[in-house]
Amino acid sequence: MSDRTLTILEYALLGLLDRRPGSGYDVARLFASTPMAHFSSSPGAIYPALLRLERAGLIAGRLDSPTGTRARRVYTLTERGRTALTTWLRQPVTRQELVRDGRAPILRFSFAEGHLSRGELLGYLESFRREVAAYLEEVGRFRAGMGNVTPHQHLALDHGIRAYEGQLTWIVDAIRTLEQPPASSMGSEGEGPCR
Amino acid sequence: MSDRTLTILEYALLGLLDRRPGSGYDVARLFASTPMAHFSSSPGAIYPALLRLERAGLIAGRLDSPTGTRARRVYTLTERGRTALTTWLRQPVTRQELVRDGRAPILRFSFAEGHLSRGELLGYLESFRREVAAYLEEVGRFRAGMGNVTPHQHLALDHGIRAYEGQLTWIVDAIRTLEQPPASSMGSEGEGPCR
DNA sequence: TAGATCATGTAATTTGTTACATGATTCG
DNA sequence: CGAATCATGTAACAAATTACATGATCTA
Q: Whole-prediction pTM value?
């Protein structure tokens, strides 16, 4: 029950545990040692979030004690958890999530493999591209309409513009990469002009 | 008293009110209508933060009621507030703030005008450049050391790399812009090869 | 005068942070 | 044996979100 929307951390946990079941400690190590470092690896954030997801019926923990080592609580997605994840993955990028804590769009992309078809993924990237382009246009208008403003302030604003332009070129590249036929699978993967 | 470090929102308020005194409503409008939109414009965030700053003695509110219009509480920085702001502005960029909520470095830059000398500002940008470059190198090593990983996962990682590369080119540009002598002020400003 | 906008706040709830606590197991 | 690492948690606190409440002033 209870269809409250999950936090970005909870979605991150869902996506990670979907790819590979693991313990809170596993996740903490991942957050501490990979480019997912913008998530806190502190136990005070992770364990309560795992408990919330378990109480919500989205993940299930089972005690795993390979003789000798200390017991770990390993979490796996439930059917409802997988549903919640794919439902989230299908949401197009919105202005709101682009501007307020822009991590969600790329987090969704990175978990999409295996859940979205190539068509869906391209549609998703298109929604991403559209939102970034629209926002850039708006900021461009803002910049043009700024009254008497110092070069310093222009420079500061340019930082944001550059950041979004960078996103845009990545998106366009990603679309191009995904649009080429996937070098027709089976057997010798890793070949082909895949970027 | 109480030297707890301020939140990023509180620093944003400090920087904004330093540039131009104003009310909570003014700030809310600014957050809602400019590229500072990653800050929440909700009254439940802004008014409590202003109260905290006032209780900490960093800003002072006075009732401003220009006959006719409704009274507004206009805040100005106190001496201690200015000190707190400039102290913060002088902090070099750290890995921690770059990775966890990367807004602080550029926020500091955008408030630095009038508080830091050109030399200090260049030093600050240099610390920014150094941190971004170091982090990029680390992510690059991570990317190179990833085992069997799908093209999709490479693509996702590239998003972050692009974002930091974008920051880096902005920083280098900004340094170059600031390094040229400031077209020697007085009188006809707005001229000169300033970018 | 009715509705929009100006303007300030509060209350309930949720979330995250920091710091602490605890105990098992491995390694030097 | 002692230190480091594995592993899971809790408690106190601070902060943000959403939603609500309130009233003044302006405009159609």
A: 0.91
